Amino acid sequence: MVFHSRHQNNPRLLRQLGVRAYQQRWPWIGGDLQTLRDTIRPVPLPEDQGEPVRIAVPALASGAAAAGELLAFLDRPLPTPAGDPVPPRALVLALHGLGGSSRREGLRRLGLTLQRQGFAVLRLNLRGADPGRHLAGGTYAAACNSDLLPVVRRARQLCRDLAPSGSALPLFGAGVSLGGTMLLNGCLAGSDARADAGLRTDQPVLDGLFCASSPLDLAACSASIERPRNRIYQRWLLQRLVRQTLADPFGVSPRENESLTRNPPRSIRAFDAAVTAPRWGFSSVDAYYECASPLPSLLTNRCSLPPTLLVQALDDPWVPAAAAEQLLMAVTSQPTEQQEPVSLLLTQTGGHNGFHAAGDSLESGCWSDRVASAWLKQLSADADR
């Protein structure tokens, strides 16, 4: 089913999904307040009932970190009001963003929204993220397929375990911010990388994907976060990243320790040059940004993607919308009869992973949570046909 439209807000897609067009709600007006809402007024979440799942991952090819395990939490669909269990319609692999974890409010709220709609959710802690920090050394990157693809293999096994005998549930992905970038890069992985991870090469990595506020051009995002208006954001992110890196129970190298303590990085780009790029085997930060930015592949080779929906606000203070607008032009320039795996929703407002609108609640999530739920429900219904 093709949903794309030549309009930024994609009214045809919204009608298909049964979701109203986004409108920011008072007092969270403007990109900054939308971005900061969950920090200013944290969401009152219920106790985390996720079942721990440990997933083996190999050593980093650079030698910067040994083999270890990633920690995920499996959330089953919420029971009926009478307390009866609900069979899952699909499993959703949910990834957090930069400096986040499975405990972050936005990821948990998205997960709860999906659970209420009959999905099982696997919330992953990436390498270096609490509460799985003690299980694997190192940190994650925007392109971390050597970690991500083994997780997908384990998730496919869970799809079989959770389904009726002899069948398998669809496996979807949902990523917020950099988590969506990682999932896009995973879906774009070549057949050799998939085979090395034990995945089938005759099926897509995922059966469907949703990304909110996800960077498509890392160099542009790095430049954006360095703007004077974003100084406070960058300082906050850097403090989290440096603290997270130095807290590694497996230790850091002498060079990294000097880079992070004696000459602390003053930008995300400087942090990536000192830590992320060398740990993941890149010769420079520019090489890392070029390789880990999914935009070039999305513009020229989208055929390997499953049905994918990208949501992006034009007033996102962190992630410039230019890359998403460029992709929208490529998508909408295709002949209407040609199957197009990518759909986009570009909203005038919403900030970075904000999208707080009228009708938000703990039960219904924010607007982007509702879009994600409706999108994945549509895909699961298509899979049942």
Brief descriptors of the model:
385 residues, alpha/beta, 14 helices, disordered N terminus, single chain
Report on this structure.
The protein has 385 residues and is an alpha/beta fold. The chain has a single domain (11-223, 293-384), classed as Rossmann fold (3-Layer(aba) Sandwich), CATH 3.40.50. 39% of the residues lie in helices and 12% in strands. The chain is built from 14 helices and 8 strands. The chain has helices at 11-17, 31-40, 105-116, 145-162, 178-187, 191-196, 218-225, 231-246, 254-262, 268-279, 285-292, 295-300, 322-332, 367-384, and strands spanning 51-57, 68-75, 91-95, 120-124, 171-176, 208-212, 308-313, 342-347. An 8-stranded mixed β-sheet has the order 1-2-4-3-5-6-7-8, with helices on both faces. The longest helix has 18 residues, at 145-162. The two termini are 12 Å apart. The relative contact order is 0.18.
Write the topology of this structure.
Layout: H1 11-17, H2 31-40, E1 51-57, E2 68-75, E3 91-95, H3 105-116, E4 120-124, H4 145-162, E5 171-176, H5 178-187, H6 191-196, E6 208-212, H7 218-225, H8 231-246, H9 254-262, H10 268-279, H11 285-292, H12 295-300, E7 308-313, H13 322-332, E8 342-347, H14 367-384
Parallel strand pairs: 3-4, 3-5, 5-6, 6-7, 7-8
Antiparallel strand pairs: 1-2, 2-4
Helix pairs in contact: 3-14, 10-11
Strand line-up of the largest beta sheet: 1-2-4-3-5-6-7-8
Strand content: 5-15%
Contiguous uncertain segments of 5+ residues: 1-7
Radius of gyration: 20 Å
Q: CATH fold name, please? A: Rossmann fold
Overall geometry comes to globular
CATH homologous superfamily (4th level) name:
Alpha/Beta hydrolase fold, catalytic domain
How far the N terminus sits from the C terminus, by CA atoms, comes to 12 Å
Number of DSSP helical runs: 14
**CATH class designation:** Alpha Beta
Q: Provide the number of structural domains.
A: 1
If classified by CATH, what would the architecture be? 3-Layer(aba) Sandwich
Q: Structural class of the secondary structure composition?
A: alpha/beta
